[in-house]
Amino acid sequence: MALCRGGCPAKVASDGDDGSRWIWGCRWWKLERLESQWVLTRWEWVSGDLGYGVHSGVVGARLGFGIVMVIRKVGLLAMAVDFGGIPVWLVHEWVATKPTTSDLQSIYGSGKVLPTITIILPFKPAKVEAVKKQLSRIHPEIILFLHKIKRESIRENRGGSYTTDSVSAISISSEMNLISLRSHGANSRIVLLSVQEEADATENTCRYYIWRQVFPVKPDNMVDARKDIKELVISLAFPFGKRLKRGTSSVGIFAFLPTAMVTNFPFVVQADFILSSSRQNILMDNKWNMGILDNVPSCFVSALTTFMKSSAIDEFFSIYRVFDFLLVRESPYKELNRVRQSIKSMLQKECIVPYESFLNDKMVFCEPTNAIRILAKFRKILSHIKEHNVCLSDISSQGKFVLHDSVDHKEYDEIWNFLGVPSVDDCNEWYGKCIQAYHLMFKASTRVYVKLLCFLANNWKHFPLRSLNSIPLVKYITWNGETKACSVLEIKREKLKIHLVWEAEQHAWLSKWNLEMG
């Protein structure tokens, strides 16, 4: 993009000598050559608010390079389209001289690769700063949803001298296609988005996971404004890091351009929404938009579960970062809270919660409602037992799985509460069942056994009596030297008399005489 003071050399012709096709700006554009890559599939005419008959349009098309962009003053613009690699540019119709590649090269610098599309805007000096300010507000994340645009930059001609990227530069530094699921009409990719505010400023970056999925349009959601469209395309962008944005607010919904809606969702939703007249919000009561929002939960769950199963988890990100995308905060929009609740219900049926296998370090997953959180001291006791080569792999055979230690921390509380994972206080009955079912009293070493007794004593008031009173917790030595265990209830009923001996020497002496005397 170039900002030129006092005019710009340009001239529009119907056909270029270099074989390019020139298209005059008008309300409806059509290419004569009816090949799929040349067909302008859509032109939406929108009334603007810039005065004296100025209009805004959105070209969303497969125009050789499949771009989506905003064009101002449509009646005064022309587009040069070339499919042989020569750059494309937009100029005002009334500019006197036809621009050349060398003109553009002088702006971008010799040896530099020219952009695929250049918009040349001639302004009076008094208007340049206002336009620069407006252009600097372009939301950087918009480029995530424009599949063929990899870089957007602004350069200024100040009377023959050129300033490199003097306003801003937004680019996709790297991109990797991740997964394509034809059966689901979905694909995903990982992109590294970069933003540089000034030529000498530090470049800010953020990596995004982009999920794009196609859904059929249901008859109940059809509207006249979209009557020829049979499929919805929904894109979700998940930022792994600090989002790149303009201002302090985090826009949560994009149409072809960002709205002003802050959703409190930790990801961005982009689709062909129908907007309000201000173009700042989507129409929540619109049937078309309701159809899009109805598909967002399914789109989100597919994106999340597919990513968790992919190799990108190990290559680019930590599995724990994925949980940051769960919707722990409510949205200020009631319609979006219904989306949030639907996502929650669907996730509760998915195996997405990591739990301890007690077999190896490999992370395995279960449904949220089948996971439990346990006290840290009991987890340490289990770890000590495992260290003595005692197999605890059957500890989940009762259908409850111990939440993995790496995510069983206070910082994850909101996430597990959102998914419906029972809290520590709701899992008190599990301890007694675990101790009894897996004979932990006998599998533990003497030292760990004592720690287990201390743990039970310190937390006795929190555990249901019925879950512990009848469990053989107290180990003793019989008259013939055999080690057995009895319950607290048996001792209380005086079915057995257990004598405590604290000194090791006395214990050994008593055990010996117990054998002798029978």
TrEMBL record:
Name of the protein in question: Uncharacterized protein
Source organism per UniProt: Liquidambar formosana (Formosan gum)
